[in-house]
Amino acid sequence: MDQLLQHLVNTLVLGGTYALLGIGLTLIFGIMNVVNFTHGVLYTFGAYMMFIVVHQLGVNFFLALPIAIVAGWLLGAAIEILLLRPLRGSDIDTTMLVMIGAWIAMQSGALWIWGGVAKSVNNPFPDAPLVLGPVSVSWLRLFVLAAAALLIVIAYLLINRTKLGKAMRATFQDHDTAALMGVNVSWIYTSTFAIGSSLAAAAGALLGPVYVIFPQMGDLAAVKAFAIVILGGLGNITGAVIGGFILALAEELGAGYVSSGYRDAMGFLIIIAVLIFKPTGLFARAERVG
Amino acid sequence: MNRLATLICLAAFISVPLWLTDPYLLNALITTGIFIIGAMSLNLLLGFTGQLSLGHIAFFGIGAYVSALTSLGFDVPIFGDFHIVHVPWPPIAGFVLAIVIAGFCGYLVGRLSFRVRGAYFVIVTISFAEVVRLVALNWVELTQGPLALTNIPSISIGLPGLGYLVLKTKLQNYYLVLAVAALSYLLISRLVHSHYGRAMRGLMENETLAVAVGIDVTKTLTLAAVISAGIAGAAGSLYAHYIRIIDPDVFAFISTVTMVIMVVSGGKGSLAGPVIGGVIFGLLPVFLRPIMPPEAQWITYGGVLIAILFVLPRGIVPTLAPLLGLSRKQGDTAAKAAPLAVEERA
Questions:
Q1: What is the pLDDT along chain A (290 residues), one digit of tens a residue?
Q2: Alpha carbon distance A225, A271 (integer Å)
Q3: Does A214 contact chain B (CB < 8 Å)?
Q4: Residue B22 and residue B237: Cα distance in Å, rounded?
Q5: Any A CB within 8 A of B342 CB
Q6: CB contact under 8 A, A86 and B310
Q7: pTM of the model as a whole
Q8: Are A180 and A187 in contact (CB under 8 A)?
Q9: Domains of chain B as residue ranges with CATH
Q10: What is the distance in angstroms between the Cα of A83 and the nearest Cα belonging to chain B?
Q11: Mean pLDDT, consecutive 10-residue segments, chain B of 346 residues?
């Protein structure tokens, strides 16, 4: 029972960052119909931004986090303008392959610049964990959970309460009609990609200090993000949040009670099972963003 | 591409070892050839049915492991004291089993994953390949996990009255790979020019119309998946017996990407496309290696993929073939696709 409680606490911490990853991808996938293979690279990029800003520039840890998020936003906007904008109207396979090319090039770039040796980011929290009865959780992980929750709320408000969010939702429903109503669809796409990318970078910046950072860390993150998006249904933000926590729970329980070697297989098995039995996602409100 | 050009290409490939004796280049040609076989099988799905399978390396890897385990033998505990023991069989039996089992996996994956289309199909196939990779990594009793299967025997062919011919040298392996590649090319060519091939292209162009004229979608797609997976399994078997050591990295996603690049750059839906794209991208690392570090090679690789999609979105062969006057068959296929409805009803 104590062990189960500990797994549930770990699930909460992990699920928060998974939800961030999932929201970013589901926005891009849902609104732009682009299968974004660079999502994992943005996650890696966020983690390395933390490393650079904290260790090489000597900036405060809490200030480094927004810097990493803004850097992810800028990189995402650059990818969209350079690679996706010229391919407007291409079929989904073409943009997917372009994204794969960008992913290979950028990941190899990370390997070239920062080397393959894993790095760790120092954090200002005390080493001793917070112990509550049978469960213990480190202060850093608690901070990660709180920051992820805050970012999820910001993303939700951005989509549902702002003018930009309204334009994004309109574009998702029908981009031709949205364009007729005066929405600059091209810039909505760029904003969507930049926001999604900044959320991926935020997830990397938050989880990077918890684990170690290395150039290939984003590959699994990207697959997990796909699993979350499929679980929650395309373009469904609430679904992505719930999907993030379900995936985290499946991984924690799989690693705890089956075998830690199959921890990362959980995401793939969920994808296969959901697509075979319920292809529209568990929360079948597939036709909406928000 | 017309028959004469195909025969000239085949003759050129046969003559390569006569003027190229550098073992390093010959080795690069053999591994490239194995990947070209994989790319041709992927082209059957991607180019002729329009399904982008990004888990294709799973069938290649399954073929490699089946073939290696058949020829090495194994002793695997299942429940407690119950063991499955297999004594080594000759490698050629492994080759055949690799095709059969990879084809069967293609059947299963096809039946399950053709329920979804587009991006979802892509993600299911990636997931399948990753699950297979994790099984190969974690089922240590069978696969040795990360320790790899070593000392895989070379392919040997029994000659009546003459004993066994063991294909050990690079020259022998080159011709073995070339023979399998030529057979695969012939098989795919016959298939896509048959009734089933026209049904596949009909599905790709307009699935609703194809269903309306009575094409059995699942049957047609599954047939393509089985043959495609079987050929990929054959390529995997050749790889295992040539390299003679395999580990779970054989399932690396980047290998699927390599095959996709070969198909897309050469021209999907063109029989010669994967061969041309495969020769270019298979040998590109050989020329890049002396002039740049490995990371820069991969950056170039990704950059070239993007550049090809921007500049030659249809691929090299469909763009250049009309200019060289080799497009007779291309025109034929276009003409065949149009009266599809009439033909299928007949």
A1: 778 888 888 888 889 999 999 999 999 988 888 889 999 999 999 999 999 999 889 889 999 999 999 999 999 999 999 999 998 888 888 898 899 999 999 999 999 999 888 988 888 888 888 888 888 888 898 999 999 999 999 999 999 899 999 999 888 888 889 989 988 999 999 999 999 999 999 999 999 998 899 998 888 888 888 888 888 887 788 889 999 999 999 888 888 887 777 777 877 888 788 877 877 777 755 444 44
A2: 11
A3: no
A4: 25
A5: no
A6: yes
A7: 0.84
A8: no
A9: 3-345 (1.10.3470)
A10: 8
A11: 78 82 86 94 90 90 92 78 78 89 92 78 85 86 82 77 74 88 92 88 85 85 93 94 89 87 88 89 85 86 88 85 64 43 40
Q: Which residues of A touch B126 (CB under 8 A)?
A: 223, 226
- Dump strand ranges (E) for chain A: 130-132, 135-137
A265 touches chain B (CB under 8 A): yes
Tokens of A146: 């709180």
Tokens of B39: 């790319």
Question: Does residue B295 sit at the A interface (CB-CB below 8 Å)?
Answer: yes
Please name the residue of chain B whose CA is at the shortest distance from the CA of residue A88.
B310
Q: Give B257's contacts in chain A (Cβ within 8 Å).
A: 100, 104
Q: Is B281 in the A-facing interface, judged by CB distances under 8 Å?
A: no
Amino acid at site B3? R
| pLDDT tens-place string over residues B246-260 | 988 888 888 888 898
Does the domain made of A2-277 have the CATH classification 2.160.20? no
Whole-number Å distance between alpha carbons of B113 and B121: 6
Give the chain B residue whose CA is nearest to the CA of A104.
B302
- The helix (run of H) or strand (run of E) holding residue B159 is strand B156-159
Q: Does B140 contact chain A (CB < 8 Å)?
A: no
Q: How far is A59 from chain B (nearest CA, A)?
A: 30
Reported in sequence order, the residue ranges of A60-180 that DSSP labels E, i.e. its strands, are: 130-132, 135-137
Q: Where do the structural domains in chain A lie, given as residue ranges?
A: 2-277
Residue type, A43: Y
CB A191 within 8 A of CB A181: no
Instruction: Report CB contact under 8 Å: A104, B131.
Output: no
A108–B130: do the CB atoms touch at under 8 Å? no
Single-letter amino acid code for the residue at B256 = T
Contact A286/B at CB under 8 A: no
Q: Is some CB atom of chain A closer than 8 A to the CB atom of B292?
A: no
Flag if B137 and A104 touch (Cβ within 8 Å): no
Contact B123, A230 (CB under 8 A): yes
Distance CA A64, CA A17 (A): 17
DSSP label of B63? H
CA–CA dist A285, B180 (Å, integer): 49
